[in-house]
Design goal:
This protein is α/β, with parallel strands linked by helices and about 450 residues long. The chain contains 7 helices and 24 strands.
Length: about 450
């Protein structure tokens, strides 16, 4: 079903009816736009036929026809016309003052999306919408989901990301058609502050949800890890709170997920060591891998070099040695790499012919790092380099002129001495216009609260 939807969108793109504005890490279109004239035509025609209504005011409603799809964007009026909405199939409300009692009139709803709605409790009418396929409560203050949620047997997607929900009811295990469970508990009631968040606790019995393809961001205990072995359709999985007891059962469960393309493993605390060597067979179809925690032996597992499909990797607090960096450099499709407190050596060398496809590199929270070298022929496709909170890196990276396609250099919380030397290096470059390579530098000083931009000319 998801693949068919992607095909339809791709056809619209190929016919120039949609333009792709943003893609995700796998190259999948994430945001589209349409030409203004085409948009006006679509909105006007859809409103006349009741196919789609976009509204901010009650006066904008055309009550002469039945409405099937309704979008309210920051709707403030209390006068809500419902007499022509008995056939409503999808309802999206964004930052809207909503009278929850209205939902009881929309019995045919299959999609209900309540984002940034100022409520702290799921409206009771929602659990009576028995045709519901999609329920979104993202970025709300809802703290708890009722047991009656188990009545929604047709539900396929529950999106509670950045809500206040910390635990799911046991009735969730009755929803055997559930395909996507997207969770993450926000830090507090301020919508502007989402991090640090918390993983959500799941009930026993998750093995019943054999159709699940997406499961994130969840607290992992031993019982849950065992039950994951029954979820063989899984494609995207993010686990938090991992410890030695749960890690023992993880390789067996992961080995049964033949469609897995995205995996995140986060340890419970700094004392937990992530031993990933026992994964057999390893998840070779992975396109995205996030690891947070100290790795056994301060190195990546031996099978890591076999991840030929890996496109994005985020390694946090891994304490890697230089040999592991060499293992990363051989991955043929890796284009986005982040090392957050993940490297413990003083010197980091990017060897020739390494990272052939990498376009984005972030080095952050590496307190020991004092010297970075880019050998000629390394990172030939790198476009963006970000350096953050590397307190001992005060020298301009050696061989930065070898990054022939670098467009942006970001400095965040870096030593002022490094910034000064970068600017001095451009002043001493002379006027050799023929081979000039210009890099845009964004320099953010945390202590001084300043942000500056300047050009770095490489000759």
């Amino acid at each position: 079903m998801e693949d068919a939807a992607d095909d339809y969108l791709n056809q619209l793109v190929q016919r120039n009816l949609l333009q792709v504005m943003m893609t995700n890490e796998f190259g999948r279109a994430k945001r589209f736009q349409i030409h203004d004239l085409m948009r006006e035509l679509i909105v006007s025609r859809s409103a006349k036929e009741g196919l789609l209504v976009l509204s901010k005011e009650a006066s904008e409603f055309d009550t002469s026809c039945n409405v099937r799809h309704l979008i309210l964007d920051r709707y403030k009026s209390g006068d809500f016309p419902t007499q022509k909405m008995t056939s409503l199939r999808s309802f999206h409300a964004f930052k809207t003052d909503l009278d929850a009692s209205l939902l009881s009139r929309f019995r045919l709803l299959t999609v209900l999306n309540l984002w940034y709605i100022p409520v702290n409790k799921l409206p009771s009418a929602v659990t009576n919408l028995l045709n519901l396929h999609y329920l979104g409560i993202r970025s709300t203050l809802i703290k708890e989901l009722p047991q009656e949620l188990g009545r929604l047997h047709k539900l396929q997607t529950l999106d509670a990301k950045w809500s206040m929900v910390q635990r799911l009811p046991s009735s969730i295990t009755k929803l055997k058609g559930l395909r996507h469970l997207i969770l993450f508990t926000r830090h507090g009631s301020d919508f502007r502050i989402m991090f640090p968040g918390k993983a959500v606790v799941l009930p026993d019995g998750m093995a019943n949800l054999t159709c699940l393809q997406t499961l994130k961001y969840i607290e992992a205990d031993e019982n849950l890890i065992r039950s994951l072995g029954s979820l063989r359709q899984m494609r995207s999985l993010e686990l938090s709170g991992m410890h030695e007891g749960s890690l023992v059962h993880l390789p067996s469960s992961i080995s049964k997920m033949s469609y897995l393309v995205s995996l995140g493993i986060i340890s419970r605390d700094a004392n937990v060591e992530l031993d990933l060597e026992p994964f057999s067979p390893p998840p070779l179809k992975l396109q995205k891998l996030t690891l947070k925690g100290r790795l056994t032996g301060c190195k990546l597992p031996s099978w890591f070099g076999c991840l030929s499909n890996l496109m994005e990797s985020r390694l946090h607090s891994s304490e890697l040695n230089e040999d592991s960096i060499g293992l990363l450099s051989s991955l043929p499709r890796l284009f986005d790499l982040s090392l957050w407190g993940a490297y413990k050596e003083k010197r980091l060398t990017f060897a020739a012919r390494g990272y052939p496809f990498l376009t984005r590199l972030r080095l952050q929270d590496l307190p020991c790092l004092a010297h970075v070298e880019f050998q000629k022929g390394s990172l030939v496709n790198l476009k963006k380099l970000m350096l953050s909170y590397c307190a001992n890196l005060i020298e301009v990276p050696q061989g930065i002129e070898n990054l022939i396609n670098l467009e942006n250099l970001g400095l965040f919380g870096m030593p002022s001495e490094l910034s000064r030397k970068i600017q001095e290096s451009q002043e001493s470059g002379g006027n050799h216009q023929a081979n000039k390579h210009i890099i845009m530098v964004e320099d953010i000083s945390v202590h001084q609260g300043t942000k500056t931009w300047y050009q770095l000319r490489i000759y």
